[in-house]
Design brief:
With 282 residues, this protein is an alpha/beta fold. It has helices at 48-53, 80-94, 106-117, 136-150, 157-168, 171-174, 177-192, 196-207, 212-215, 235-244, 266-280, and strands at 12-17, 21-28, 33-37, 59-63, 72-73, 99-104, 122-128, 222-227, 248-253. Helix content is 43%, strand content 18%.
Length: 282
Amino acid sequence: MSAFDAFDPAVREFRIKTAGARMRVAQVGQGPDIVWVPGGDSPAEAWRGQMMHFAGQYRSTSYDPRGVDGTQSAPPPWQIADFARDCAELIEQVCQPPVVVAGLSMGGLITQQVAIDYPHLVRLAIPMGTAAYIDGFTRDWMQAEIDLRRDGITLPDYFLAPHYAAYALPAKSLGDPAVWAKVKEAYTTRFAERKPQDLIDQWQACLDFDCREALRDCPVPLHTIAFSEDVQTPPSMVKVVADCAARGHFHELAGLGHVSVARHGADAVNQKLAEILAQSNQ
């Protein structure tokens, strides 16, 4: 059973073929198109809260990117440009461009690259928890995760949730027993099933990414969203994207972490998204 079934049976699931992949796609709603790009390790369901929230006003589409089980793709190594081409071909096949493209984490990088490489397909880009180039602590942490797996080391199941949740959510939410119970169960299952090579291939593409110069000539409005308690992509890193972009805008949401949008902070993120969408429609 799809994770969408518990939310709305109106979600349509199907597959499309791009030049480099055969992708699982989910779509719901009617109206102007929003394409929701998942982050690393995440399937289309990562955006179900936003897809359902905006289904009355927009047609929402998400998909499993390369490195997620629902999609089969050309063998790695991959670059973010490859992920962006998949997204662009999806837009051409199942949407009516120009569309809104929104993404989180790796999905934010892909969102930026789609706007840079295919501006005729994008009227508005909303990258969240994103970066123009990954450096500092984030780079060292991601490289360590890659090297750990290249050395053949796997994390035991009992360590998965305590390890990854600390990078995903703010301390206040982790201190909520109800939130932690859900996160512990979900993260243990999610990362126990994660293939080490898929993490290596996705995360290496992120570390190879640098769009600082390309953003300066991008004609698409970019509204970046940062989260004040984000350990993975601190607000200062997100602001670089807005500062580099020819039409960049920066928003920071207080009290949220890297993946709060999917756990405990969806309402605040949805409100900000609605404000940005309304402004773009004026």
